[in-house]
Specification:
The chain is mostly helical. It contains 7 helices and 3 strands.
Length: 183
């Protein structure tokens, strides 16, 4: 069945634009297979949702055609501890890290929290959504905050990170500006 996975990926490569294939299919791996099923490993829940919505029916049809029988395909998200993060280079560990601190440094400003955030009409929705994310009461993945300068976007992102570090000591948080992220 692993050969079927390789053939399905090859078929999708021929059907899709190169950038689309690179984005959605390069990170996939065949995790498990049996005579009539195939489990594909995806990097995160967003990939799982996107592939389910836009590609899963094609994948099942191609796999079934190649195998000559109905093939069930399931998507499994990579567990956090198995993810290789080549884009973040760990600094050499020179001391023990405090709870919530990463070897990358958090990049957070610890003075920015929900207690000293000023809520107004223009940022009320963003504030409520940010507090829900920080308390894990709701899942907004991704949480997208957009607005003009000076409304508290950076403050809210730092507040989410700082709150998570306080409440969940095993959480890793890295805050990067868009400039640092793209470079």
């Amino acid at each position: 069945m692993y050969e079927v996975f390789d053939q399905v990926i090859t078929e999708m490569k021929e059907r899709l634009e190169p950038q689309e294939f690179q984005r959605w299919f390069r990170p996939l791996y065949s995790l498990y297979s049996s005579d009539s099923s195939l489990t594909i490993q995806v990097p995160n829940i967003f990939f799982k949702s996107w592939i389910t919505d836009y590609y899963l029916s094609d994948l099942k049809r191609i796999a079934s055609d190649l195998a000559g029988e109905e093939i069930d395909i399931s998507l499994d998200v990579i567990q956090k501890d198995t993810i290789d993060r080549p884009s973040l280079k760990k600094a050499e560990k020179t001391r023990d890290l405090a709870p919530g601190e990463t070897a990358y440094g958090t990049g957070l400003n610890d003075k920015l929290n929900f207690d000293n955030f000023i809520v107004g009409k223009s940022n009320q929705l963003a504030h409520v959504a940010s507090e829900a994310v920080a308390s894990r009461a709701a899942v907004y993945n991704p949480l997208f905050i957009y607005g003009p300068s000076g409304l508290g976007k950076t403050h809210l992102l730092n507040a989410i990170g700082n709150t998570l570090l306080i409440r969940e000591h095993n959480t890793e948080v890295v805050y990067l500006s868009s400039e640092k992220f793209t470079n």
